[in-house]
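Q: How do we represent a protein-ligand complex in a form that can be generated token by token?
A: Start from the inputs.
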Amino acid sequence: MHQTTASTCCYCGVGCGVLIEHDGTRIHDVAGDPDHPANFGKLCSKGSTLHLTGDIAARGLHPELRLGKALARARTDWDSALEHAAERFADAIREHGPDSVAFYISGQLLTEDYYAFNKLARALVGTNNIDSNSRLCMSSAVVGYKRSLGADAPPCSYEDIELSDCLLIVGSNMAYAHPVLFRRLEEAKARRPQMRIIVVDPRRTDTCDLADLHLAIQPGSDVALFHGLMHILLREGQIDRDFIDAHTEGFEALDALVRDYSPSVVAERCAIPVEALQRCARLIGDAPSFLSLWCMGLNQSTAGSAKNSALINLHLATGQIGRPGAGPFSLTGQPNAMGGRETGSLSNLLPGHRDAGNPEHRQEVAAYWGVEQLPETPGLPAIELFEKVRAGKIKALWIACTNPAQSLPDQRGVQEALATCPFVVVQEAFFTTETCRHADLLLPAASWGEKEGSVTNSERRVSRVRRAVPAPGEARADWAITCDFARRLEKRLRPGQPSRFDYERPDQLFDEYKALTRGRDLDLSGLSYALIERIGPQQWPFPAGSEAGTPRLYTNRIFPTATGRARFIAEPYQPPRELREAHYPLVLNTGRLRDQWHGMSRTGTAAQLFGHVEQALLGLHPDDMAHRRLLEGQLVRLRSRRGSLVLPVTADDRLQAGQAFLPMHWGDRFLKGLGCNVLTLPEHDPLSKQPELKHAAVEVERVDLPWQFFALVEQDVQSRFSALRPLFEAFDYASFSLAGRDRPALIIHAAASQAPDAAQLERMDQLLGLDEGAVLSYDDPRRAIGKRVRIEAGRIVSLRLAGETAARDWLKGLWQSGQVDAETRRWLLAPLSAPPGETVAAVERTLCNCMNVSQQAVARGIAAGMDLDGLKRELGCGTSCGSCVPEIKRMLARQPEPA
Ligand SMILES: Nc1nc2c(c(=O)[nH]1)N[C@H]1C(S)=C(S)[C@@H](COP(=O)(O)OP(=O)(O)OC[C@H]3O[C@@H](n4cnc5c(=O)[nH]c(N)nc54)[C@H](O)[C@@H]3O)O[C@H]1N2
Ligand SMILES: Nc1nc2c(c(=O)[nH]1)N[C@H]1C(S)=C(S)[C@@H](COP(=O)(O)OP(=O)(O)OC[C@H]3O[C@@H](n4cnc5c(=O)[nH]c(N)nc54)[C@H](O)[C@@H]3O)O[C@H]1N2
Ligand code: SF4
Ligand SMILES: [Mo]
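Then emit the structure tokens for the protein with molybdenum atom bound:
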């Protein structure tokens, strides 16, 4: 029977409402929820393909346990799994104290899950060792808001973005990372072309497509830029003296500091023209309303807190806060990172925007939970936590809904830590992740579409997440796993006492949690599942008795500080921690692709999402390629002080010379060699403890790996992937991806200095289905060349080229286009890039995922004289989710003007 369930997208912090179409057992489709105030029916390329993700072969179905590091995990039942875990945690706590265990959780958990974990760690175990991946993401914004404004609360609404006269988008590639919000901005700018948009990013991203001014600053120089802007605003008298006098403190120190930031000094520091700096200041100073949006370009830095506060300074000096279209608006990355901050899911926080270091706050929460006291010892933030794990201080580690073996910096250290820890529990929806390999106990979690709860998006709006279908196998909801474990641990640590974890439904957790927010800045005590059901998702504060949420904070200009005044923070510019030098002259920047999500456990199961970018490529400025005599697609070794990675290079003229860009998504599963974070550094901001993921000194050099390998195989791609991946450990380079739409295939590119032994190739052939059926083959053992192509019903279904891969693009094209006739067949195994007389079309790259339109088709359309409307009409591209429109516009802009 056809049913529709309203829920929330599980990807980014825009928090779009989705309508899940299903039959009670399987999800068939998703659509944007027209009634949801975040997206009004829109979805981006990731949200609209949710139903295509989640291949069951990649999911965790049953708990698995191993009883020794050298042993393999075996299937077990929930009862044995959680009894074992409780015993191990209780032993560690009894022998080594509560701080010998730790919980590392995630901004993708639901508010109810977070609350359960917090109560477990702080009230039952008695440790503050509970931190989350938000440490890599939002913790600099938390510090910025708290110290500048008094509370961790983004003061704006999405509507303010549409209302603003001048927008400063800094260190955010919204076009990729918050696409539906970017669509709203595009529409607002189309309605009000006088709206001014400034983008500050070392790269020319798709977000720059909307910009009136793009400042391609030197990586890490944002604080200098903000102080330079302040300097000009002051000099030009474009500040709001009345606001500063009445509602702020600390201005004098900033005033003195920014005197040193003259336009010429700052322009040089940031490597931008002084006129551009002045124009930027003028746009801000002249604007009736000014709003800033930022994300990881500011937060992921050893100066992350300073960058946040220096930006907020600009709002305070101009009085641009607490009014429509104005304010400092940090974009949240993960779907419920906000909920994590609210429930106290960083080691230094407590539920209800409280601080673990504050004795009164501890007492309030302890009293509410009915325990004598909460632990005083500060908990470990993520980077230090993994250092302590590596040092053997943490005896049992519980990881939920995050993949630290891919996403934390300095992966060599992280891998060692996970291998050292005596007992690692991983609570995961997809058992394919890099972290799962390290689990002693692996617990299958329900995921999107299968669980109930709530999340808060970037604009403080609390939405419901609803279950459409049952979780596969024995997977369970996160809060249920946590509470079941907590009850078993209670029996060991507090025998005979009544349980504090007797919940049957998630709304019981929500209701218990919300009372802890009463009277606090985020007061959401008036919210309930029933109320959201009745009047829709609401923005906090929403105190008991409210009729509606709060779209805008600080409209009365009173700030939640001791004095009621906001604070200017005067901190000098500090350069990034790792400077370029002779051995490492390039700066490595890492970030998002349009269609992939983090470690790709979910998006990596939908072949269609690889259409836009198929494999890991290192982007370099064309000049840097030329200096090093590198050609497009050549393999390089990318090195930093901490590790190295082999992958192909590509010329990217959106980068400045001296900069390199690598998408953050590739971990060891998709790209052999521990992924991009083998290169990044663990150094972090002194206050927020957020690591500098956007800035590592690197160098590249060509590698010659004469023995090349290419394979393509249809059907059962996830299980083949899992089985094949370990066979590539001895290769210097191995990259895995998916291709196709209706008939997805696994694609493998690999290279080595010499051929593997015959037995290994034989094993690969078995897993590729090339050991039986209609297989054409060619072998030249003397040159270690071997090729196999399997054809069924006139179509290629599997192939591998070993030793020499000249024909790979042509063969991939043949596979994609279908039939292979007798004439073509003669050339399949030839050492040519294509049969004589035929040219290989470049492998088509999907630009528009919804309508399946390639970049090549768009280019042909442009060459034929079509404009954006013509392309939309004739090809259909850009007419559905719109995620590809900025890129199409960029292609159009590159065309020479017709004479
Ligand atoms: N498609 C997609 N969307 C996502 C995610 C995803 O994985 N995929 N993840 C979500 C999450 S958790 C997050 S946190 C957000 C991240 O969203 P964003 O922060 O927007 O994305 P990033 O690509 O990490 O980085 C943004 C930009 O910062 C720039 N940058 C680097 N260094 C500097 C600098 O020193 N100064 C300035 N001003 N800019 C700099 C980079 O060039 C990059 O373009 O995206 C969310 N949305
Ligand atoms: N170099 C570099 N590194 C980065 C960044 C960067 O820009 N550059 N960005 C950083 C940032 S901002 C972030 S947020 C992190 C993200 O890093 P991670 O948190 O490691 O990212 P994900 O891959 O989203 O991990 C979430 C995991 O939860 C699993 N999962 C999904 N749904 C559920 C569920 O309902 N329950 C449970 N238990 N599990 C589930 C997924 O399969 C996935 O493995 O990466 C950080 N790392
Ligand atoms: S913008 Fe895209 S990824 Fe983000 S919540 Fe909306 S649909 Fe999901
Ligand atoms: Mo994030």
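Residues 62 and 474 are 5 Å apart (CA to CA). The first helix runs from residue 78 to 96.
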